[in-house]
Amino acid sequence: MARRKAPEELSVEELRRLLVEKRRGARKERLEHFRRTGRVISVAPDLSDLNQDSAPIVDTADGAESTPQPAPVSLRRKFLDRALLGVEVLAVIGLIGVLLNGLGLLRTLNTEVVAALNPETPTATPLVMAVVLPSGHVPPDAQGNTKPNEAEIPEHLRPMVQSLANMPVPTPAPDQAVRLQIPAINVDAPIVQGDGWEQLKKGVGQYIGSPDPGQDGNVVLSAHNDVYGELFRYLDRLVPGDQIIISTQQRQYVYIVDRTVLVEPTAVEVMASSGSPTVTLISCYPYLVDKQRIVVFARLQN
To answer: pLDDT of 56-82, one tens digit each?
Structure first.
């Protein structure tokens, strides 16, 4: 059996070969360990393929484990990834839109439910449906005969006036006006509902749709000045401060005259509703001519 040489007895070439074999064995052990644990590393070419007499060998296995390089991504995969990302973004935007729309519908539904559970009492706002101011008529002849002045009404609006003449009269109620007194011109007359030709033969007519005395709004009263009692003949003598007393079955309301104006028969805006208790008196003018209207405005006395 050959005697093992001591290290100092070995030549340089023998020492070099022993060192390489030792490193090769250590390298194989590390590779086996990495394979068993499933780790992947980049290794240098196997030293067994190298000529032992070649240039000095440098072992690359002594360094740290190298970082695995990612596999190249294909263009198709990139396109699919971007497409999926776009779909996800659109889905999120659509979901947000659905949620916002649902909140809006829920808010609207809640408002409608509240309105249904707490209905407001409707307040009637009478519309001025008249084409011309009431009490219009032709001047009476020597025998006192007269008739409605249809010439005041535009021809194309006459069917409308005829339809308004058939408006139903409100059912009598305790709050309705029944009597008108104007002490300054000695007027004391009954008040009837409606201001048509037949109603004004019976007394002072209240425009249907105007409020009851004392309420917010404009109580519109009209009467003739030269026929059927000449109830409003002297409206032009009223001055600011004069009293107009309207009675119901329960109480009296006192209005104070503000002003008097002369208008054309078509100035129906004087009948418009007001935000406070007022009364408006209307009659033809001047006496026995009847081409205009005299209008007296008054407000409820505190």
So the answer is: 544 444 444 455 556 566 788 888 888
Nearest to 240 by CA among 226, 261, 266: 261
| Residue 35 or 143, more confident | 143
Listed by start position, the domains of the chain span 10-65, 175-300
pLDDT one-digit tens code per residue, 182-240: 999 999 999 999 999 999 999 999 999 899 999 999 999 999 999 999 999 999 999 99
Measured in degrees and rounded to the nearest 5, phi and psi for residue 57 equal -90, 135
Domain 175-300: CATH superfamily, name plus number: Sortase (2.40.260.10)
Return the pLDDT at 74.
Answer: 79
In this prediction, residue 106 carries a pLDDT of: 87
| pLDDT, position 60 | 45
